Amino acid sequence: SARGPRYARSLPRPLAEVMVHPDDITGYEAALREGAARGTVVDHVFRQSPDGKVWYWRHARAVQIPHAESRYPVMIALVTDISALKHSETLLRESYERMRIAFGRTSQLLWEVDVASRTFGIWDLEKQRYDEDKVFRGVPAALLERGWVHQESREAFAAFFRSMLAGKAEDRAAFIIRYFATGQYGWATLSY
After folding, report:
1. Which parts of the chain fold into alpha helices (H)?
2. Which is nearest to 12 in space by CA: 88, 86, 64?
3. Other CB atoms within 10 Å distance of the CB of residue 178
4. Which of 157, 182, 181 is nearest to 171 (CA)?
5. Per-residue confidence in pLDDT tens, the chain, 192 aa
6. What distance in Å separates the CA atoms of residue 188 and residue 151, rounded to the nearest whole number?
7. Closest C-alpha to 77, from 1, 2, 20
8. Following DSSP, what letter does each residue of 124-160 receive, concatenated?
9. What is the pTM of this model?
10. Please, what's the b/e burial string for 32-64 (b: 16 or more CB within 10 A of its CB; e: otherwise)?
11. Nearest by Cα to 64 from 20, 31, 103
């Protein structure tokens, strides 16, 4: 058409007109302005509503386009509904917080083994990640060689890990291990 692409006839449109949440307009506008000024792609998350009552989470990926009828930069965005993802993130965050509180009141540790890489790690609930000094590759040998398992428990500990790595669905056993916090040996029960 002589006036440009069909989509251009509806542009530009203010964010308030497309029902962006009032609390998100300033941040979204700033991201779009920065993208236009730098000529970069913009990725931004915001809330939007068709009726001003029910709000949905959106992810916009925007880029500047030529627009003959505007002397100002015009951005066009591909907007995706990410409401289900945001809901899942909220549920996961709440679940993690419950787990952190529950584990924080016990002397238990959360550990994980990546069977494929034979990597053992202890999860730090406060930092929400594995501490590198508590990650061991090549288990059970790595734990045995570094002295984390007392001599009297080595054979049973190795058998416990071999059965896990071989695919046993669940197990529970007690071993004499060196505690990470004190460096002293004591009895501990491991289960998976």
Report:
1. 22-38, 83-104, 141-145, 154-165
2. 64
3. 16
4. 157
5. 444 444 444 556 677 778 899 999 999 999 999 999 999 999 999 999 988 899 999 999 999 998 888 888 888 899 999 999 999 999 999 998 888 888 777 777 788 899 999 999 988 777 777 878 889 999 999 999 999 999 999 999 999 999 999 999 999 999 999 988 899 999 999 999
6. 14
7. 20
8. ETTTTEEEEEEEEESTTHHHHHTT-B-GGGHHHHHHH
9. 0.55
10. beebbeeeeebebbbbbeeeeeebbbbbbebeb
11. 31
**Which amino acid belongs to residue 47?**
R
User: What is d(CA 48, CA 22) in angstroms, rounded to the nearest whole number?
Assistant: 9
Length of the chain: 192
Residue 187 has, within 13 A of its CA and on its CB side, a CA count of 2
List Cα–Cα distances, 100 to 93, 114, 128, 192, in angstroms. 10, 21, 9, 18
For residue 3, what are its two tokens? 């006036």
